[in-house]
Amino acid sequence: MGIVDFIRRGVGEMIIARPPDKKDLLVFKHPDPTIPMYAQLTVDSDEAAVFFRDGAVAGTLRTAGINQRHTLDSQNIPFLSNFVDSFTGGNIFKTDLFFVTTRPIYDVKFGDELGSIADPQLGEMVTPRMFGSFAFEVFDPALFILKYTGLRTGGDDLKWIKGLFMNSVRTVVGEVLVTEQKSMLQLLPMQQMLADRFLQRAPDLNMIGVRITQMGDFRINLTDEDTALLQKAQSEIGAAQRKAKIASIAIAEAEAIAKQKQFELDQQFQNQSRYVNNLAGGNYQNYASAQAMIGAGQGMAKGGGEGGGAMMTGAGLGVGMGMAQAFQQQQYQQQQNNQQQQHGGGGGAAPAAPAGALVACPACNAQVPPGKFCQECGGGLSPKPKLCASCGTQGVPTARFCAGCGTAYPQ
Q1: What is the value of pTM for the model shown?
Q2: Distance between CA 342 and CA 349 in Å, rounded?
Q3: Which pLDDT tens digit goes with each residue over 215-237?
Q4: Do residue 27 and residue 55 come from a single domain?
Q5: Are residues 82 and 136 in the same domain?
Q6: In sequence order, what are the residues at sequence separation of 6 or more whose Cβ sits closer than 8 angstroms to the Cβ of residue 67?
């Protein structure tokens, strides 16, 4: 070896830095474990230099600044005293030196099936897939080597980190489908909301000194078969919902019509009630009796079947006449009560009958003024009810025919 080669080798050993062709590595291990005292260490601003001895972390150095280097001297850097090799007279440090990239690592690809998922709205089982990228950074270089890459050359295998992130993605997608009650077809365009959720629920990588910082572009897609299955289910459910809505509208309209009809019937009944009240002079019983008499007469006039028309007609006439007599008697009695109230009523003598008004005495048939007793024979003037000999129905005293069966009362 010539003197020039010796000088070049010595100068090379005194300047330590990551080679330019190794800048893209996440972790680079310096190949020579022996470093001369006072060597110049260059650490870029986007990396850190981590020193190990016997598998333990001794210290970490960051960049020294623009156009600055670290002079490897135990006087300046106390932890280097742990690396001094006594066999070389203290002129050599024995250490494992790693360069770890600390800038954000972008466009880390990930992707896989999300597993079988039941669509909350449509009820169909589908198997969506997700593909995309994310960014992460190493915030603790020493911990990243100890807990993830190990003391070996390289360290760019991110399969385990991608797997953890994919697990969190599956969890978030399932939660959104359930809590938001969204169909998978509705979930596909919700990228920004999902990206925020993915970052919120990103796996905790603090134990290896790493954190996920940003979501890149990603997409959730379905196979053509799954897409067709969900679209068909969506169409069927939509048709059923439209039918249910139409039925609901029809029911509401029917209820409204029924309410209007009931309102009209109530109004008609109230009008009829007022008419009846006026017609009967305020006495609804009078009107009811008249209506019963009319109804009975109409029913009897229609006949009671073959061979019984004449008989039923006669009976009907009898009922009608009997009810008419009862109505007249009730009207007369009401007039008597009104006259008694106008003259003080009570238990006194009956008021004087109007001139020309006479009644027949039930006992002697004399025509006498109305009152409690007959002026001719002293018998009571109150007529006695008649009892039908055929059916036992009790009729008013002035009735000529039984109101129950039409039989004529004896005169």
Answers
A1: 0.52
A2: 13
A3: 988 888 888 888 888 888 777 76
A4: yes
A5: no
A6: none
